[in-house]
Amino acid sequence: MTNGAQVWGPLTVATRLATQLIPDAPRTFRTSPEQLPDQAADDQDQLRKTRLFWAIYALDSYVNITTCHNGELLDRSIERLLPNRALAWETPGGPLYSRSENQSMSIDPQYVFSHHLEALDLSREIHRIYVDFSYHKSSGEADTVGDWISRVLSCSADLFDWSARLPRMLQMDAVQETAKVTPRCFSSLVMLHGYWCALVIHLHSMVICPTLPECPRLSEVRSQSHEHCTRAVEHLIGMIGRIRGTTLKQLGWPFAWSLWTALRYLLACQVHSGMQILDGWDTLLRCLQAAAKYWQIGMKYWRMLNRAMSELQQSMSSPLLGPPRFLSSVVDLRISTADLEDRFRVDPVLHQRDDVPEHSNNTDATRFGCEYPDPRAVENNLATEMSIYSTSIFQDPDTWYNMPLYATSAYQQSSQSTFDSTAAYP
């Protein structure tokens, strides 16, 4: 995935067709041949349709929270298949049929995904909270902020309760004991807990954001939210230490978003509170760069973070250079990731540089006792040294919309030189 505009249209079509997978819908799809209109749907046929619906549901949930987009699937469509969702992912003789505590860890990805869907239920609520956080940021009413904090705390309790209720074989300790997990299930477990860590950080980092209107309850919750975020980052770093290149390839772009969420939180803490970035910054950033070998969006996240960190280091060494424009946007958690991508896109049709005024000159600056360099030199330096996206390894800036949604062999070959340093990760 590259940006929201490329996936919103196809996703809308997919979600609308997904409603026809519901058994009692006015129109339904069938996958078995030569089925008579008055013949009951075959069990296997309905099972395939149900699983397809929840796969589209997962994609819709991923895209919503990643690109800050409103969900396409309506609640009433989801609720019609929700009661029987667990049954759709059962396998004969699998863990769902036997819940003995002494059972060995003979799980499969299908079983892990059935629990991952429950985390996606919570992600949709977190996304609604974030939308309110973004669009109602200017409200100064203490009652409004208090109600919003109540929603955050309630959702946080559900997140931790979901993690505590996971079967023993799916707990966080299972990721640490890699010898007891089959290789084909290890990536599913990493994705399950990595995404949960990102949801915790995404939810509680809103509370830490200093732009929220102050109220007594907010100050009480902030320290606890910071502890939750820090612990989630530490869990994520611990999992990364056990990931190998073959596993990273199987995680998908939502895991790249999880890394981005953790890294953006660390950067915001450094800027807002002066907290030194944890030693795991390099570990997370290196893993994100390695993930970019397989998922385009990972390289975009990596470039934005490097740009922001470069501005932070420059501002610390030379305070007179002025406020870093890109860094201030990255650490303002009210600005969604999709807006960050669009705001700093190199496409000249969608983006016009406003770093330097068009008609400014040195004469205007010297009237106020300041001495600035030539604006054209500044713009050239920004374009060459601080560009977010290097179009030389992809395509021309005016054809960004032709870039593939997902990693392909052609993409990997064309950008192989960029990822030579990450080929042997970790």
From TrEMBL:
Classification via PANTHER family: ZN(II)2CYS6 TRANSCRIPTION FACTOR (EUROFUNG), ZN(II)2CYS6 TRANSCRIPTION FACTOR (EUROFUNG)-RELATED
Provenance organism: Paraphaeosphaeria sporulosa
UniProt main location, coarse: nucleus
Subcellular location, record wording: Nucleus
Domain of life: Eukaryota
Alphabetized GO MF terms: DNA-binding transcription factor activity, RNA polymerase II-specific; metal ion binding
UniProt cross-references to InterPro entries, sorted A to Z: TF_fung
GO cellular component, one term: nucleus
Keywords on record: Metal-binding, Nucleus, Transcription, Transcription regulation
Protein name, per record: Transcription factor domain-containing protein
